Amino acid sequence: MWPRNINENRPSRAVRGRLDPELRNLGYAKAGSDRLIRKRVHLPDCARLAIDKLRSPLEQQSIRVDLECDAQDVRADEAILLRILVNLLGNSVKYMHRETRGLITITMSRAWEEIRTVIADNGPGIDPSLLEDVFLPFKRANVDERGTGLGLSIVKKYTESFGGRIRLISDGASGTSVVLMLPAASSASLDLPESDAA
After folding, report:
1. What pLDDT is stored for residue 168 in this prediction?
2. Angle (nearest 5°) at CA 112 between 109 and 114
3. Confidence of residue 118 (pLDDT cuts 50, 70, 90)
4. Neighbours of 90 (CB within 10 A)
5. How many Å apart are CA 65 and CA 15, to the nearest integer?
């Protein structure tokens, strides 16, 4: 998914003034004032919509996406969750080797009171010693790529705001897996949406 070298690079003034579209989509510019509307979200439908939003780059790079899931509902802000999935899938697409027959597999399963989503790719992977660093602000996976190094830190922030968790798994050679744990939707607790500050 990500190249093996992580480079710390504070963004320039110009970069700070023009946050990447993906960061604006995640609400970074108004992160302190966003309102999260937690409600029942059908996760497979959200994943399909994220795939559809990336249809063009997926087709351009001939990357196949396999979605394997049962019907799984989570408690989250639907718009933010969609942006999280687009961001994570977009990273897989962005760093996939052009000469590789790209494959991204999305699997979903229930784990007690959580829904476990794994987004796995066959990209170059990332050094295991750096797996935690990618969630730190201003850590960029590749200095040759445009960006502020804020995308994954914001993904982590919003995932945790839903009561969820996120981590990466990679051996540095055979791809990367993102493990996203989100609270399962319980019918008893979802009669009314819950609004909260981000």
Report:
1. 94
2. 60
3. very high
4. 18
5. 32
In the predicted structure, residue 149 carries a pLDDT above the cut 90: no
Both tokens assigned to 115 = 């829904």
Q: What is the pTM of this model?
A: 0.77
Beta-strand relationship, 64-68 and 103-111: parallel
Domains in the chain: boundaries: 21-187
Query: Does an H or E element contain 90, and which?
Result: helix 78-94
Dihedral over alpha carbons 85, 136, 19, 82 (to 10 degrees): 10
Residue found under tokens 């969820």:
164
> Bridge-partner residues for 105, per DSSP?
66, 120
Report d(CA 195, CA 47) in Å as an integer.
23
User: pLDDT digit string (tens) for 43-88?
Assistant: 999 999 999 999 999 999 999 999 998 778 999 999 999 999 999 9
Domain 21-187 has CATH 3.30.565.10: yes
